[in-house]
Design goal:
Order of helices and strands: HHHHHHHHH
Radius of gyration: 15 Å
Number of strands: 0
Number of helices: 9
Length: 191
């Protein structure tokens, strides 16, 4: 519950980052195969809350391109989650979180031209990371923070992307059999 509260605060203030807080804490307690599907269920609820405002202000064309790349890559990430050794996965998640925090803290942003293949690639990287660990917000965050959009458009675009991505993740996790009664109970307790 503490992990969910801390992750929710991060998501509420910045528009992303719940997984950067929740996944390491919850994975240490119950393991990544249990914690990550729980976050997917929790994100489903928050996406529904943010969706109306996201739809109104998001850069929908760019979100659609990025989400297409993510949707194609989510099944590969969920395969990693379903078939990886839990200890190796836990250490891999730790490395991903540390790298993500370092990248975001560095202030580096992509400021080059917006090109469809690059936007698809950012989405694919985010989709793979989301399917494996629900950590797919970092690539789009770095991408969109480098754009000249207003904070409202940036946050709406992130929230719309997360809504689409979360739907793909829930489907991929269900397909891989990653949801169970234990995860549902954990989600209810954490939410």
């Amino acid at each position: 519950a503490v992990a969910a509260l801390a992750g929710g605060l991060s998501r509420g203030f910045s528009g992303f980052g719940a997984a950067l807080v929740f996944v390491p804490l919850a994975s240490a307690a119950v393991g990544p195969r249990a914690a990550i599907p729980v976050l997917a269920l929790l994100e489903t609820v928050s996406c529904l809350v943010f969706l109306p405002g996201a739809w109104a202000y998001a850069a929908r064309r760019e979100v659609a391109v990025m989400a297409a790349g993510a949707i194609l890559a989510v099944p590969f990430g969920s395969m990693i989650l379903a078939h990886s050794d839990p200890v190796v996965l836990r250490w891999g998640l730790t490395g991903l979180v540390l790298a993500a925090v370092a990248l975001l803290a560095s202030g580096w942003r992509y400021r080059g031209p917006e090109k469809v293949p690059l936007t698809l690639g950012v989405g694919a990287l985010g989709g793979m990371m989301s399917g494996a660990a629900m950590l797919g917000g970092v690539p789009p965050a770095v991408w969109w923070l480098g754009r000249s959009a207003t904070a409202r458009v940036l946050r709406a675009s992130m929230n719309l992307y997360f809504a689409i991505l979360t739907a793909a993740i829930v489907l991929a996790f269900a397909w891989r059999g990653l949801f169970g009664w234990g995860g549902l109970w954990l989600a209810l307790a954490a939410g």
